[in-house]
Amino acid sequence: MTDLLDHIKAQISANGPMRIDEYMATCLLHPTLGYYTTRDPLGAQGDFVTAPEISQMFGELIGLCLAQTWLSQGSPARFTLAELGPGRGTLMADILRATRNVPGFVAAAEIALVEASPKLRDVQAAALAGHKVTWFDTADTLPDQPLYLVANEFFDALPIRQFIRTGDGWRERQIGLADDTNDTNDTNGALCFGLGPVSPQPALAHRLEDTSEGDLIEDCAQIAPTLQAVSTPIATHGGAALIIDYGDWRTLGDTFQALRAHEKTDPLTAPGACDLTAHVDFEQLAIAAAPAQYTRITPQGVFLERLGITQRAQVLAKTLTGPALETHIAAHRRLTHPSDMGNLFKVMGLYPPMQPPPPGLEP
Ligand code: SAH
Q: Would you give per-residue pLDDT tens digits along the chain (363 residues)?
């Protein structure tokens, strides 16, 4: 077997239409043919660029935010410094560099990376050479101790399902094989979207109030167990989580998308060769946040300004000239400007009961 498209078509032929979450999981994490398992997709040569790859300032400010929270909570002597989906390891490397001068912080940190891709684990190991790092397959095996965690563009990669509200109830959007015998071109047998039968969805009861017939909503089943795994140590032992992603409070409509070489593309044409994501529904994160508290969702640009990105940008600018200075100014704008990543990306913090939220965020 060499082609993921053939593999998926064979599965559909044998078992019937495939749910979108199964399709996403197969495309992204198939052990030998998956998108993340076979490549490093980040950066200008890849398919997409993330905030830590745009500027070191992002990771520096995240690091100082976590370190300040650690100080405010009495500097626990041992803690987990974790990242979900660390990509190239750039964010964690910037966190560790920026917090070097916070006395005791790096020495007390046990670095934990939750990463599914063996290929990216290798890239992370190289980026973090000189540090002791432990990898985990899932968040629920992180050590039972204070936890300071960041997840940037992790939750958007978790598989979603889509449901359309009809007069008779919810129908799930699925992927099948086109069956048009009159078709004169070659779309016959291609992957296509369709709708499953009406089925009861008790977990979607809260979406009856804000939807009407014809509306499409998305649901991500992995959010709840992942948040539980993070919230429990934070509430029990102390810590904080910063979750950064594109999305909003209660998303509505189809946000399932594919990116290849920085361009949007059809999610069904090249399975395994493009990044598949969906917007994150921050309300789902909030619903699953207990026993930790969650902050208000804050636009990334506002969060970074509150943490002092402009002052940091000015300090760095003094060391730069020419094209490097122009790139630096553009990066600052890209991370913070409302028409760029500043508003599309949101930040939600998790923190222990009876404690203040991490710097830059509000209860
Ligand atoms: N946080 C990084 C990379 C984001 S890309 C950055 O900001 O640059 C998404 C990352 O999540 C990749 O490292 C990918 O391999 C990882 N990933 C995706 N799905 C995962 C899953 N189910 N479990 C663990 N890691 C996953």
A: 569 999 999 999 999 999 999 999 999 999 999 999 988 999 888 899 999 999 999 999 999 999 999 999 999 999 999 999 999 999 999 999 999 999 999 999 999 999 999 999 999 999 999 999 999 999 999 999 999 999 999 999 999 999 999 999 999 999 999 986 555 555 668 999 999 999 999 989 989 999 999 999 999 999 999 999 999 999 999 999 999 999 999 989 999 999 999 999 999 999 999 999 999 999 999 999 999 999 999 999 999 999 999 999 999 999 999 999 999 999 999 999 999 999 999 999 999 999 999 999 999
CA of 114 to the centre of ligand 1 (A): 8
- For a mutational test of ligand 1's pocket, the pick from 48, 49, 117, i.e. the residue with the most ligand atoms closer than 8 A to its C-beta, is 117
Does residue 95 line the site of ligand 1, with CB under 6 A?
Answer: no
Query: What domains can be seen in the chain, in order of their start residue?
Result: 4-33+161-218 (no CATH), 37-159+222-351 (3.40.50.12710)
Q: Which atom of ligand 1 is nearest to the CA of 51?
A: 7
Instruction: Tell me, in angstroms, the distance from the centre of ligand 1 to residue 117's CA.
Output: 8
> How close is the Cα of 84 to the center of ligand 1, in Å?
7
Ligand 1 centroid from CA 236, angstroms: 26
Cβ–ligand 1 distance for 41 under 6 Å, the answer no
C-alpha 92 to ligand 1 mean position (Å): 13
SS (H, E, C) the chain: CCCHHHHHHHHHHHHCCEEHHHHHHHHHHCCCCCHHHHCCCECCCCCECCHHHHCHHHHHHHHHHHHHHHHHCCCCCCEEEEEECCCCCHHHHHHHHHCCCCCCHHHHEEEEEECCCHHHHHHHHHHCCCCCEEEECCHHHCCCCCEEEEEECCHHHCCCEEEEEECCEEEEEEEEECCCCCCCCCCCCCEEEEEEEECCCHHHHHHCCCCCCCCEEEECCCHHHHHHHHHHHHHHHCEEEEEEEEEECCCCCCCCEEEECCEEECCCCCCCCCEEECCEEHHHHHHCCCCCEECCCEEHHHHHHHCCHHHHHHHHHCCCCHHHHHHHHHHHHHHHCCCCHHHHEEEEEEECCCCCCCCCCCC
